[in-house]
Design brief:
Distance between the termini: 24 Å
Largest sheet: 7 strands, parallel
Helix content: 25-40%
CATH class of the largest domain: Alpha Beta
CATH architecture of the largest domain: 3-Layer(aba) Sandwich
Number of helices: 12
Strand order of the largest sheet: 3-2-4-1-5-6-7
Number of strands: 24
Radius of gyration: 22 Å
CATH superfamily of the largest domain: P-loop containing nucleotide triphosphate hydrolases
Shape: globular
Number of domains: 2
Oligomer: single chain
Length: 424
């Protein structure tokens, strides 16, 4: 496994757009390349997969063991990893799970993307501060992003020259590179009919502004030996999983674990009013049911298939799926929508509140018994949740939290997204 990591001093520096442009430019040039995303993220990996015509997976240095990360990252094709937040930003108290942890564990060089829109000579101490902060993290060069003019570029390059850090590109500000977003991130790849054209446009605009020879040389670094690691066991043998624009947040590495263990996974679309297929376990992943609540409520074949599922069929919902299993979901306009009514739960987006962070969860009921590493990221407010909680939980610091979710008979759910089995 060889490759590089694209990171930045902070969020908002343009990592995703540059990653997509680089992936597509390499593919268009006839190269083979894979992609991965640091940390818990469902949206960016779908864009990466579209850009390089290959599956993209998550590498989470908080929730996954080093052996698990190396196993997922291993392969003969060079790997480009998009970092999350700033290079050294991770979970409290000490920043565990930062992109820098991946750089150390995998021994990959980091290309630092610097948003230069509002700076000139200050770019040099910023870059050197990151390069010298931790010598176990190799900064192989920088890309100057959102450069305003030829004069601005000359000032930036002159400032960088004494540092000895290579400038691997200077990318001009361009409104054609902006992408639509919503409250959880970019508008999903599956909702972008123009996505392929956008990716080709981004590659055509950005690649000529990058030192592609130097970047390709970084990608051709030494291969690392991979290690095998136990995979997570499937929660059932036959699994029906909702999959469409409303229920898209399922981690590929978990689905691949289950398939590798012999589980049969059957996708279906609640938005198409598909009834849930017969299965041992019906899974409703997270996503954006709040944007489609009226349609989901009206899709009686889907709703009735949950209500009338055989008694020995378990039903599990994560985040958006959890809200769908409840009695009522109130959208951002304050309109209530009747959901499946299998849990005594009422949630609302009329008053939004951010819930964000890593979680360690433990359950004695449901398909995910025992301890798991997880995360929470949503804006929904719980107005009512009556019944037995599904999980006990703690945050990244180990501090106990209020119990999460609900479990009643064969129906279970919570706002937690399962990432992996507990660390060894």
């Amino acid at each position: 496994m060889s490759g590089l990591i694209l990171s930045a001093p902070s969020s908002g520096a343009g990592k995703t757009t540059l990653t997509l442009a680089l992936l597509r430019a390499l593919i268009n040039a006839g190269a083979s390349v894979r992609a991965a995303k640091s940390g818990p993220d469902y949206i960016d990996p779908r864009f990466h997969a579209a850009a390089c015509h290959a599956g993209c997976f998550n590498l989470d240095a908080w929730a996954m063991s080093p052996a698990r990360i190396k196993s997922l990252a291993s392969g003969d094709t060079p790997l480009i990893i998009e970092g999350a937040m700033g290079l050294f930003d991770g979970a409290p108290p000490a920043g565990r799970g930062a992109t820098a942890d991946l750089a150390r564990q995998l021994g990959l060089p980091v290309v630092l993307i610097l948003d230069a829109a509002r700076m000139a000579q200050s770019v040099a101490p910023l870059a050197m501060g990151f390069a010298n902060h931790d010598t176990s993290v190799k900064i192989a060069g920088v890309i100057l992003n959102r450069v305003g003019s030829d004069r601005h570029e000359i000032m930036l390059r002159d400032a960088m020259a004494p540092t000895g850090l290579p400038v691997l590109g200077s990318v001009r500000r361009n409104s054609e590179l902006s992408q639509p977003s919503r409250h959880l991130g970019l508008v999903q790849a599956s909702e972008r009919p123009d996505l392929d054209a956008f990716l080709d446009c981004a590659a055509a605009l950005i690649a000529p502004q990058l030192d592609m020879d130097a970047i390709t040389a970084l990608l051709a670094g030494p291969n690392l030996s991979s290690t095998s690691t136990p995979r997570t066991a499937p929660p059932a043998q036959n699994i029906a999983i909702a999959s469409d624009a409303a229920f898209a947040f399922a981690y590929p590495h978990l689905l691949e674990d289950w398939r590798s263990a012999g589980a049969q996974i059957t996708p279906f679309s609640p938005l198409n009013n598909d009834p849930a297929p017969q299965a041992d376990l019906i899974v409703l992943p997270g996503g954006y049911p709040e944007l489609h609540a009226g349609q989901i409520a009206a899709n009686s074949m889907f709703i009735n298939s949950l209500k009338n599922a055989p008694r020995d069929t378990q039903i599990y919902g994560e985040c958006g799926g959890y809200m769908t299993l409840g009695s009522t979901l109130i959208d951002a306009d304050g309109t209530p929508h009747r959901m499946a009514g299998l849990l005594d739960l009422e949630t609302s987006f009329a008053t939004r509140k951010l819930h964000l962070g890593y979680r360690t969860v433990h359950a004695t009921a449901g398909p995910f018994t025992g301890e798991h590493m997880a995360h929470e990221f949503h804006y929904a407010t719980t107005l009512r949740a009556q019944g037995t909680p599904l999980f006990t939980a703690s945050d990244a610091t180990g501090t106990s939290l209020e119990p999460m979710g609900l479990t009643t008979g064969r129906v279970h759910g919570s706002f937690a997204h399962i990432i992996d089995a507990p660390l060894p």
